[in-house]
Every structure is written in structure tokens, then in C-alpha cells.
Amino acid sequence: MFALIFSIGILVDDAIVVVENLPRHQALPPDRPLRAIIPAAVDEVGGPTILATLTVIAALLPMAFVSGLMGPYMSPIPINSSLGMALSLAIAFTVTPWLALKLMKPLPAGHGGAAHNADGAPVGKLGRFFQRVLGPFLASARRRWLLAAGIAVATLLSMALAAVPQSAVGVVLKMLPFDNKSEFQLVVDMPAGTPPESTAAALQELSAWLAQQPEVRDLQGYAGTASPITFNGLVRQYYLRADAEQGDLQVNLVDKAHRHEKSHAIAQRLRPALEKIAAAHGARLKLVEVPPGPPVLSPLVAEVYGPDEAGRQRVALQVAQAFGQTPGIVGTDTTLAADAPRSFLRVQRQRAESLGIPVAVVAQTVQAALSG
Known about the structure:
Layout: H1 2-11, H2 13-27, H3 34-60, H4 71-74, H5 76-103, H6 125-139, H7 141-160, E1 183-189, H8 196-211, E2 216-223, H9 231-236, E3 246-253, H10 263-280, E4 284-289, H11 309-324, H12 349-354, H13 359-370
């Protein structure tokens, strides 16, 4: 789809500019053959066409140097587009003039200069309109400088919009701005060894508070089992969250036409209260939004490599602590598995046998009790 839009909107521009200039030169006196008209017509628009093509390439090519997880996703666009623009320019200056020489018909004798009257005034409404608008600038150098100054001021004002991104007219400088989605997800991690009943209780309290928010339409919790898989969860491997201390809460918002805030602003506003409720249960909470682009493991990811596991774990905890102390970073997490508390039950076999209780019965009873 992108290739189709790009080829229709940009790749054909160079050839169109060249072709449109040929009839204009045909209409200018004196009458000349196409073989003499085409080189002059192409030469006239050659400089602006090259400059426009290089401008588009300069705007697209920096995306080829995007690093990180977005790099492989972005790099084919500038590389293929820049190559296509260069080929389009070459075709516009070689193939298009040759086809024009073969396919265009010369104007009949006496039709030269049909675009202007005898006094040089343009013919037609469009010609008179451009003469009225552009004539004063062509006739006065002072007006041209004023026009250039106005364009410069407008450019500076448009660049200044980035300095006030939170205002009504501000522009946020971001590769992929946040979209107004209709859902978000709460990922809850209780302390290791927590039974599913405690995980469900934490989700229940979070759900009760969210249900009171006017922007929330409905929600669904999953304690000790994975929630239905989504595109975002596929990359983050949420389908593997099936431990007793893990819980997910899927939250659906009302339609965007019935709320004033965007989903990202709602998530930012609700996060502090949700984190407070989770902290009361000793849980770590992450509020996960649907990404505006391809899903990633996390907006910021630090990978730790080292020769031994103990050293990697120690450095990973130090990095996580540094992230947690950095303003603007929330929901810090690691892939380290916490050690759950362990209890050892030793059966006094002689005592059990003297009471007529087989050891297997004791093991089955303990398993049933721990399984809930």
C-alpha cells in the first residue's frame, strides 16, 4: 500500500513536470519542430526538478539511520524511496523526452503563441489570475524581499510550535505519536509464591476502583492464567504468564467520541492511584498501552551480558534501580525470577506407621491442602 501511494504521489512528479512544459513551449512563437523544442523545455525545468527530488531524498534518507528495535522496520522505506526517486529523475530526463518526441504531434501552422494575446497578456481565467497574483512580485524587487521575509517568519513560527507541545497548537516531536486507543492493560506481578487467591484479590480491588471511572466501559481480570493473546502481548510473551503470582487486567474504554481525553492522557492520570493500590498488596504494576507502531518488548530496554549469572543479576538490579530513580520512567521491571519462600515437611515415618497412616496419604493430604 505504501509503495502504491508513493508511486502515484511522488515518483511520477518528475515526468509530469517535464511533460507539462512541452506544450507550453510548443505554443510559444516562432513555430519550431519538436526536436528543437524538447531540449529547451527539459532544460528549463531541469534545475528545479533536480532540486525538488534531492529535497525529498534528503527528507527520507535520515530514517535509514534509525537504530534500535525500530531500525529494521524503518530502514526499507528511505532506502527504497530514495532509490525510486533517483530512478524517476533519470527516467524523466531520458525516457520521457524520447517518448514525447515519438508520440507528441506538432501544432498546426499558425497556432504558435496561442497562450498570449498580441500585447503579451495571458489568455484565460487561470492565466489572468496568475498574472494578477504574481505580477507585482515579478515587477518589484522590494515585494519579492517582503515575500521572502514573510515566508521566513512563517517558517520560524511553525518551528516554534515544538517549544509548546502541551498547548492547543503545539506539535509533539516524536517518531510515532500516541494514538487514541480504546483499551489498555494492567500487568500485575505479586511476590513470588503468592497463591492465586491473593492475586485475584489484588485484581478485584484494582477492578473495583477502575469501574468507578467514567472513561472505563468494562474490564476483565485473569489471575494465575494468561489473558487472550494480542499483537502486543505476542511480542512481550504475555501468553506465558500462567504462574499463580501473575495477573492481567484488560480494560476497555468508552468510545473516543464520548470522552474528552485521549487514551494516553487517561492512562497517565490513572497510573498513580493504580500503583498505590498495587503497592498495598505488595505487587508491581505496569500499565501497558497499545503501541502506535510495531510492538516492542518495552520503550526502554537494557540488556546485561556477563560471564556469570550472579554478576549479571547484580548488574541488572543496579540498572533497574537506576531506571527507577530516573524522572519520567515508570513501570521498571526485570526478567529475573524471584526466589519463592520454601517450606520443608519431613514426615516421621515410624510415628506415622505406628498410627497406621501411610506416608503416601500424608503427601496426598498436603498436596490437596496446598492446591486449594
